[in-house]
Design a protein that fits this description.
Elements (H helix, E strand, L loop, with lengths): L1 H12 L25 E2 H4 L9 E5 L7 E4 L4 E7 L5 E4 L8 E8 L4 E5 L2 E4 L2 E4 L2 E5 L2 E16 L4 E16 L10 E9 L2 E4 L2 E9 L2 E4 L2 E4 L2 E4 L4 E4 L4 E4 L3 E3 L2 E4 L2 E4 L39 H4 L3 H4 L3 E4 L2 E12 L1 E4 L3 E9 L8 E5 L2 E4 L5 E4 L1 E5 L4 E6 L7 E9 L3 E6 L9 E11 L4 E2 L1 E3 L9 E5 L4 E5 L7 E2 L3 E6 L4
Parallel strand pairs: 1-3, 2-4, 3-5, 4-6, 5-7, 6-8, 6-9, 7-10, 8-11, 9-11, 10-11, 11-12, 12-13, 12-14, 13-15, 14-16, 15-17, 15-18, 16-19, 17-20, 18-21, 19-22, 20-23, 21-24, 22-25, 23-25, 24-26, 25-27, 26-28, 27-29, 27-30, 28-31, 29-32, 30-33, 31-33, 32-34, 33-35, 34-37, 39-41
Antiparallel strand pairs: 35-41, 36-40, 38-39
């Protein structure tokens, strides 16, 4: 039944529109149209008929009008001008949707979809507010250039959608325990701000603005975050991505981030009929986002194509990922040479069946100067990696605690804070692990200034890698089970 309803909606959606009548309305709104309950479109036009493919415009002379479109209509154009005017579309089903061609909502006006199914075949451009409440809206191309779009609980937006630099989109922000999530399916470009509550996302998402996750947001979309963007996962937020993320954004993790790979996509319950639009391949959304670590298969175990190898992978090619007592848990986290990891909290999740793999090519700046990051999985430091170790005292220094295997590499910088002067041969176990591969090593160590470089030496045992502060020359570091920074005062 869902499939047939979807076909019927798409068939109607694709019907070509011809130029029709211009609906004649008074130059000033009738009195009943300016009340809080508003008037019907039929009342506004004095009971006249509305032809197929008609053009409807609320004129610039209108202020504070409220008009209800409560019967199925087919409009070639819909324009809301004037100031503080509202059109509410409350009719339409998956079999007989309200058909709209081009839609223009001018600044200081509002368009509300209240229930039912609706489709637009032309450009949908809004500088005013748009609210989608318990509705399905299919769009060809929708631009929210300013003001706000609210996609409420139980609603679905399908098609190509962009958020302008002066606009904000809120998806599923109003969801409570008795409500179903909101869903977006299609291609999305965010230059302004998007706030994600309880929502399912399908397709492709490009973020050049700001994304704030405040609820349980689940995505089967690939996410691309550009260098000008920000991703903020609040303490209450859970972002679960059944796909891949490529990011140059500054990322702040107060809550939980899962980037995972399922052996097969999760199957939703078909609660909303339309599942595709002419511009989007038919797919389905997960019914909810997990509230605990998903039990999934690592992408490296089942992937065979390059596309599949990005599933479950967060690749940070620039910017900073800062963990603020949160959990950042991709199946695989790749930190590029131009990127930085900072803060304190968890990489990976202790409850996940598949542990995370943390691969660093860039900078590691742990802490609140100093602080601790726990890695539930493995850590691989490549030759390009830089570990900036801050030491404020013999007991207060940066720590990286790894539950799995460590492979050392790259550069170690030991940086003294708060006037700390280590005693001779003081040991600082700043990395601990289940196992550290032998014969892997840091390639150099450095001090707080170039003059300090020649004062650092390094040596290793099978249980520790040791860096010593003395008058010698720098050597490489390797070790097993733990990494130790040993600082000796000058003789």
């Amino acid at each position: 039944a869902v499939k047939e309803a979807s076909k019927a909606l798409l068939l109607l959606f694709c019907v070509s529109l011809s130029v029709g009548q211009i609906i004649s309305i008074p130059t000033t709104p009738p009195a009943d149209c300016t009340t809080s309950s508003g008037c019907s479109l039929s009342s506004l036009i004095g009971g006249g008929s509305i032809g197929v493919n008609a053009d409807l415009e609320i004129p610039s002379t209108y202020v504070g009008a409220h008009v209800q479109i409560d019967t199925a209509v087919t409009l070639s154009t819909l324009t809301i001008s004037g100031s503080y005017n509202t059109i509410t579309i409350s009719s339409g089903t998956s079999d007989t949707p309200v058909q709209l061609g081009s839609v223009t909502v001018k600044a200081n006006n509002t368009l509300v979809f209240e229930g039912g199914a609706h489709a637009t075949t032309g450009l949908f451009s809004s500088a005013g507010a748009v609210f989608i409440h318990t509705s399905t809206v299919i769009v060809q191309a929708y631009e929210q250039t300013s003001d706000i779009l609210e996609l409420a609980a139980g609603s679905r937006l399908i098609g190509s959608f962009s958020v302008g630099s002066g606009a904000e989109a809120q998806f599923g922000v109003d969801v409570d325990s008795s409500s179903s999530p909101a869903y977006f399916e299609g291609n999305m470009s965010v230059n302004g701000t998007i706030v994600l509550g309880d929502v399912g996302l399908i397709g492709s998402i490009e973020i050049a603005g700001e994304a704030n996750v405040i609820g349980e947001a689940t995505s089967t979309a690939d996410i691309f975050a550009l260098s000008s963007s920000t991703i903020n996962v609040t303490k209450e937020g859970v972002l679960t991505v059944f796909g891949g993320v490529e990011s140059k954004a500054d990322v702040f993790v107060y809550g939980i981030v899962y980037i995972v790979h399922y052996p097969s996509p999760p199957t939703p319950s078909p609660t909303i009929a339309p599942t595709s639009s002419p511009t989007v391949a038919p797919t389905v959304a997960p019914t909810s986002s997990p509230t605990s670590a998903p039990n999934v298969t690592n992408s490296t175990e089942s992937s065979s194509s390059s596309a599949e190898e990005t599933i479950g992978v967060w690749t940070q090619t620039g910017g900073n990922v800062k963990i603020i007592d949160g959990t950042f848990a991709p199946n695989k986290f790749i930190l590029g040479t131009e990127a930085t990891i900072s803060g304190q909290g968890n990489i990976g999740d202790s409850g996940a069946l598949v542990k995370s793999t943390f691969i660093t090519h860039g900078q590691i700046n742990i802490g609140n100067s100093p602080g601790t990051i726990q890695v539930y999985g493995d850590w691989i430091a490549t030759s390009e990696s830089v570990f900036n170790l801050e030491l404020a005292s013999s007991s207060n220094f940066d720590k990286l605690e790894v539950s799995g295997t460590v492979q050392l590499g790259g550069r170690l910088n030991c940086i003294l804070l708060d006037g700390y002067s280590p005693s001779k041969d003081a040991e600082h176990y700043f990395v601990t692990a289940g196992y550290v591969k032998p014969y892997n090593r840091f390639q150099a160590t450095a001090g707080t200034t170039p003059a300090d470089v020649s004062r650092w030496t390094s040596q290793a045992t099978y249980t520790a890698a040791i860096a010593t502060y003395n008058t010698g020359s720098a050597v490489a570091v390797s070790g097993v089970f733990a990494l130790v920074c040993v600082l000796a005062s000058l003789l």
